[in-house]
Structures are given as C-alpha cells and as structure tokens.
Amino acid sequence: MSWEKIYDLLGIRDFISFISSPAIQSELLPVKIVFILFTIFFFGAMIYFYIESSYIWYNFLQDTVEFISWQSYGTGQISRRWKEIMKKIKSGNESEYKLAIIEADDFLYKTLEDKGYKGDTFKEMIDNANQKLLTNYNDILLAHDIRNSIVYSPDYKLDIEKAKKILSDYEKAIKNV
C-alpha cells in the first residue's frame, strides 16, 4: 500500500486541500494574528523573567566568572573580607587585634550559616560542622572563648602573638568550610 492510498483512505489529502484553500486562509487571518501576538508576548515574558531571575547567573555567568578568575565563585569576596580583618593586626593597636578576632569569629559563623549548618549558638553550629570538617575544632572553641572574653571583659589583655595564632586558626577553619 502506497502513501497516496493511505492519504486517500484517511481523507488527509482532502483535509490538506481544504485547509490550504485561499477562502479558509483569508478567514483564518485574524486568528493567525492573535496567535502571533500571543507568541510574541509570551516569548518576551519568558526572556524578561529569565533576565530578572537568577537562573542565568547561576547556570551560565557564574561559571564564566570562575573560568576567567581561575578560582571558585565567591572566593574573591572571602579573600577581600579576610584581608580587611588582617589589616587590623598590622595596625599595632591592641583594640584593633580584639576587633579583628571578633570579626573573624563573626565571619566564621556567617560562613557556616551560609553553608547550611544549623545551631542556636556558635558551639552548636561548630558541633554540627563536626571535627571532620574543622580539623582545628578545639582551637576554634578556645578562640571563641577568647572572643567572648574580649566582648564581655573590656579589660582583657591580648598580645600580638596570641592574636595572630587565633586568626590563623579562624583562617584555617574558614578555608576548610
């Protein structure tokens, strides 16, 4: 059985000739225009929402930024913030050391929070991050205790060597997270 016989049997040939007739085409012109307008509207809406959403950024542009900068996305912001914290150590002022430790503690807390670790307190969040992720777990707990001493006791004395050690512990923890 050939295709022409199948077309005749199913009535496809008659339907095609009916649909393609000039009389029907002139009657369908307003319907075609309406559908063309709907298509343009929905295509424009789709493009608008793609641009306004973060979909394109997260799926395409973020990879481009990583490729061009040769580092993971977001590490530039982390290193800039860490450099700001480390500038305080270079000042030679004890109050700046204390402020650097407080900021480093807050930075670690925020980093853990951004990575999805839960906890009402810093210790709970560190416990949830567990010792596998934070290889210097005990050092971080000790550094957090010193941070609390700085916050709650303004007379707390801190020397530069101790401040550098604490900041190095925080830096290691942030890099691990």
Give a quick summary of the entry.
This protein is mainly α.
Shape summary: rod-shaped
Question: Into which percentage range does the β-strand content fall?
Answer: under 5%
H-E string: HHHHHHHHH
How much helix, percentage-wise, in residues? Answer: over 70%
What's the β-strand tally?
A: 0
CATH architecture of the largest domain: Up-down Bundle
What is the CATH first-level class name of the largest domain? Answer: Mainly Alpha
The CATH topology annotation of the largest domain reads as Four Helix Bundle (Hemerythrin (Met), subunit A)
Largest sheet: none
Question: Unreliable runs, pLDDT <50, ≥5 residues?
Answer: none
* Cα-atom radius of gyration: 32 Å
Structural class: mainly alpha
Tell me the span between the first and last alpha carbons: 70 Å
Mean pLDDT: 81
**How large is the count of helical segments?**
9
Number of domain modules = 2
Could you explain how this protein is built, in words?
Helices cover 81% and strands 0% of the residues. Helix 6 crosses helix 8, helix 6 runs parallel beside helix 9 and helix 8 packs across helix 9. It has two domains: 51 residues, no CATH class; 103 residues, Four Helix Bundle (Hemerythrin (Met), subunit A), CATH 1.20.120. The protein is rod-shaped and about 95 Å long. By secondary structure, it is mostly helical.
